[in-house]
Amino acid sequence: MKRLVHHNYVITISAIGILLPLSVQTAAPVFSKPSPLDQQTSCFENIASSSSIYRVSASDADGDTVTVAIHSQNPSEPPFQLAKAIIGWNLMTPSSTTIDRETTPTFTFVFNASDGNNTVQSVTLTLILTDLNDNSPHFTQSAYRVDPHLLTIRATDADVSNTINYVIKEPIPNNMFSIDINTGQIILKTLTFTVEASDGTHVNTTTVATGTVVGQPCNSSPCLNSGTCSTNGADFACTCTLGWLGKTCNITDPCIPSPCSNGTCYKSGSNYTCLCTEGWLGDTCNQVNPCESSPCSNGGTCYVNGTKFTCSCDTGWLGERCNSADPCISSPCSNGTCYRNGSNYKCSCNEGWLGDTCNQVNPCISSPCSNGGTCYVNGTTFICSCDAGWLGDMCNTGKPKSC
Ligand SMILES: *[C@@H]1O[C@H](CO)[C@@H](O)[C@H](O)[C@H]1NC(C)=O
Ligand SMILES: *[C@@H]1O[C@H](CO)[C@@H](O)[C@H](O)[C@H]1NC(C)=O
Ligand SMILES: *[C@@H]1O[C@H](CO)[C@@H](O)[C@H](O)[C@H]1NC(C)=O
Ligand SMILES: *[C@@H]1O[C@H](CO)[C@@H](O)[C@H](O)[C@H]1NC(C)=O
Ligand SMILES: *[C@@H]1O[C@H](CO)[C@@H](O)[C@H](O)[C@H]1NC(C)=O
Ligand SMILES: *[C@@H]1O[C@H](CO)[C@@H](O)[C@H](O)[C@H]1NC(C)=O
Ligand SMILES: *[C@@H]1O[C@H](CO)[C@@H](O)[C@H](O)[C@H]1NC(C)=O
Ligand SMILES: *[C@@H]1O[C@H](CO)[C@@H](O)[C@H](O)[C@H]1NC(C)=O
Ligand SMILES: *[C@@H]1O[C@H](CO)[C@@H](O)[C@H](O)[C@H]1NC(C)=O
Ligand SMILES: *[C@@H]1O[C@H](CO)[C@@H](O)[C@H](O)[C@H]1NC(C)=O
């Protein structure tokens, strides 16, 4: 074994002697720290700023001067520094601030090295911050309260007329309990005590209230979700944080975030109602108001009907958008009733009147045909169709008797 190692050593020396002249101007710098076998280091959190925590080394086979820099750091804040040392380069903690494991448990670094012609990047170095006991225990509530109604004792008695009374017999532990003589309910008496939490180094305390501490209703931390408690007589009142509602801030505010796209949200029980801004409609004000574009012409009034509009037209106007004039508005039928037919009108004349606009007297209305003759209107005049035996325009000429 020993001899074999010695043999190898001799070969290595001679190999360097041959390779060195050939590699001039061609060899790139090489990192020996960090390297694939040396990629991790650690230091305590809270170490003083500008402390040296790791030695980076890189060399160049040609003997060129090598420059090393931090190529990347993740996370990038706070920035570590690299300082040239007698041998290699020292990775220094940030100068501005100390490093906190509770904020950032690990950092990673990649370094670059240059000989002026060639730049190489190192493998990734991981820095693991070692935990120190630098935090105190924190209670999850600012204070606690034990439910005063701990337990109810029950006894039965077969005798119907008997009432049962309950009392605690000695010893009563620290005078902590009372009992309701009638109901058997065991009640924790009113008192407060302190509880300490210690992690061996740091100590924190909180108060625990038992029973109903009059005037201290906030002791039980009734306000949830970071609400602020204030006393209100023997009761408490919570000022809830944004997004919470209710006596104990346990109900989510339906208006946060606002469901109303273009409107104001109002709470309505446990739900919301949107009051839409002008031009918007719908439960969440996300529909354009179809009347917003004033689609009804000529003084017509627009009404929203579902997602569409309906126009109620002013006198004299017709159509979905009130843009066609009512042909009857000028009362074109002198003695008759006007009916619309599209954009035209049609007159239905009163008795005795004729013509498109009922302005002609019906010539037959005066019954001009005598002797049973039938009157027919012809233009503005009449024609009589006479009964047998009569002649003439008005059938008032007797037919001469045939021979
Ligand atoms: C090394 O990395 C840093 C940061 O990315 C960069 O600014 C610098 O130019 C690099 N040096 C060389 C020689 O490439
Ligand atoms: C860089 O390379 C050129 C030739 O390619 C050489 O002349 C020069 O000396 C080299 N510089 C360094 C710093 O290695
Ligand atoms: C004790 O815990 C509370 C939270 O319950 C915390 O606000 C307070 O800062 C802690 N005290 C110390 C000394 O750490
Ligand atoms: C909120 O708390 C009250 C009692 O304080 C309870 O009645 C109610 O159900 C709770 N609501 C929700 C949504 O948790
Ligand atoms: C709300 O109205 C604005 C203009 O007033 C519009 O840009 C936006 O798209 C509307 N939001 C929705 C959800 O319709
Ligand atoms: C809440 O109100 C909105 C808008 O008025 C309605 O669409 C939704 O159905 C309501 N939700 C409940 C649970 O009542
Ligand atoms: C509303 O629109 C529907 C069709 O979309 C229609 O049948 C109804 O008559 C309209 N209502 C009013 C009041 O105009
Ligand atoms: C219509 O008839 C009435 C009588 O019924 C008459 O007084 C009036 O002048 C008539 N109108 C026209 C325009 O002829
Ligand atoms: C209405 O007008 C159309 C043509 O415009 C016509 O064909 C139709 O007969 C008219 N109706 C009445 C009742 O006059
Ligand atoms: C109707 O009157 C016209 C002249 O106004 C006349 O030419 C025509 O013959 C008359 N019709 C009849 C059936 O008498």
Describe this structure in words.
- The protein is built from one helix and 35 strands.
- With 403 residues, the chain is mainly β.
- Among the domains are: 101 residues, Immunoglobulin-like (Sandwich); 78 residues, no CATH class; 41 residues, Laminin (Ribbon).
- Strands 2, 4, 7, 8 and 9 form a five-stranded mixed sheet that branches. It has a four-stranded antiparallel sheet with strand order 1-3-6-5, with no helix packed on it.
- Strand 26 and strand 27 form a beta hairpin.
- The longest helix is centred in the N-terminal third of the chain and has 21 residues.
- The chain is elongated, with a radius of gyration of 53 Å.
- The termini are far apart.
- The N terminus is likely disordered.
- One 2-acetamido-2-deoxy-beta-D-glucopyranose binds next to strand 25.
- InterPro entries: Cadherin-like_dom, Cadherin-like_sf, Cadherin_CS, EGF, EGF-like_Ca-bd_dom, EGF-like_CS, Notch_Cell-Fate_Det.
- Keywords: Calcium, Disulfide bond, EGF-like domain, Glycoprotein, Membrane, Repeat, Signal.
